[in-house]
Design brief:
274 residues, mainly alpha, Arc Repressor Mutant, subunit A, 4 domains, three-stranded antiparallel sheet, 65% helix
C-alpha cells in the first residue's frame, strides 16, 4: 500500500494523521507523533507493507503509553506496581506494559527501593502512621516484602517509640472524661491501628511520665457515674441501682475506692432531697 496523505492534527501539535490509497481513495490508518513519523521516515507516496504498518502502530502505542507514564511520574514517585496498574487501566497490553516498565527502570525513573525509602521517610515526617501501617501501604502498592523491610530501616524502633510517646502525651492530656485505665487501653488500640508495634507501644508508655491524679480521676468518674445513674435509675432503685452503677464504672476502669466514694455521695445527695 502507498501513503497517500499525511495531515497535521488540528488540535494537538506534533501529531499527524496517516492515510493510504486503498480502494481508490484515501483511507485513514492512524494518528502518530512527529517522533514516530521521523523515526520511520514516513512521507507521501511511500510504499509500506501491512507488517510495516502494524510495526508503526505498535511503536506509536508504546510511545503514547510511555508519554502517559512520564506524565504520571511528574506528580510524584511511583512504585513499579502502581505504574503497571496505571498502564493497564489505560488499556496497554501486557507486552506494551513490559516494554515501558523495562524502559523506565533502565532510565532510573522507576526504582522500588528508592521509592520505598522516600515513602517511609515522608510518612515518618508527615503522618502519625507506625511502621506496620506503612508496610501495609507499600504492599498495596505492589512493593516486594524484602524491599519494604530494607526501606523500613529508615524508621528505627527509637523513632517509633518517640512518635508513639508524643501521641500518648497529647492524647492522655486531652481526654479527661474517661478513667486512666480506659484511656490507656483505648490509646493502645489506637496506636496498634495506626501501625505501631506492641513493643514500641509498651516502651513508649514506660517512657512517658503520666501521673494519675486522684481528683482528676474522680472528676472523670463523676461524669461517667452521673450518666450511669441516670440510665439505670429508669428501671432500678436501691441496692439494684447501686450495683448496676458500680459494675458499669468498674468496667470503665475506675477503682472501687473512688466508685464507693461516688455512691456514698449520691446516697447522701438523695437523702437531702427526700
Amino acid at each position: 500500500m502507498r501513503i497517500s496523505k499525511i495531515t497535521k492534527h488540528k488540535k494537538y501539535n506534533y501529531r499527524y494523521h496517516i492515510f493510504t490509497d486503498e480502494s481508490g481513495g484515501d483511507t485513514y490508518q492512524l494518528t502518530i507523533h512527529e517522533d514516530i513519523l521521523i523515526r520511520f521516515s514516513l512521507r507521501k507516496g511511500m510504499e509500506i507493507t501491512e507488517n510495516e504498518l502494524n510495526t508503526i502502530k505498535r511503536e506509536e502505542a508504546i510511545y503514547r503509553f510511555y508519554t502517559m507514564a512520564i506524565n504520571y511520574l511528574s506528580y510524584r514517585m511511583r512504585s513499579k506496581g502502581e505504574m503497571i496498574r496505571y498502564l493497564k487501566e489505560k488499556e496497554a497490553t501486557d507486552d506494551e506494559v513490559k516494554i515501558i516498565i523495562d524502559k523506565l527502570i533502565e532510565e532510573k525513573l522507576l526504582d522500588d527501593l528508592q521509592f520505598s525509602f522516600a515513602f517511609v521517610r515522608s510518612k515518618l515526617n508527615t503522618t502519625s502512621s507506625g511502621p506496620l501501617k506503612i508496610k501495609n501501604d507499600l504492599l498495596q502498592k505492589g512493593v516486594s516484602p524484602s524491599i519494604i523491610d530494607e526501606a523500613l530501616s529508615a524508621y528505627p524502633l527509637e523513632e517509633e517509640i518517640k512518635k508513639a510517646a508524643k501521641m500518648i502525651e497529647k492524647k492522655m492530656a486531652s481526654n479527661r472524661r474517661k478513667s486512666f485505665k480506659e484511656q490507656k487501653m483505648l490509646l493502645k488500640q489506637s496506636l496498634m491501628q495506626k501501625g505501631f508495634s506492641q513493643e514500641a507501644i509498651d516502651l513508649a508508655f514506660n517512657e512517658v511520665d503520666i501521673e494519675v491524679e486522684e481528683e482528676s480521676e474522680y472528676e472523670s468518674l463523676r461524669y461517667q457515674g452521673e450518666k450511669a445513674w441516670t440510665k439505670y435509675s429508669r428501671k432500678h432503685e436501691g441496692y439494684s441501682l447501686k450495683q448496676k452503677v458500680k459494675a458499669s464504672l468498674y468496667q470503665k476502669g475506675f477503682t472501687m475506692d473512688l466508685i464507693n466514694r461516688f455512691i456514698d455521695e449520691k446516697e447522701a445527695e438523695n437523702e437531702l432531697m427526700e
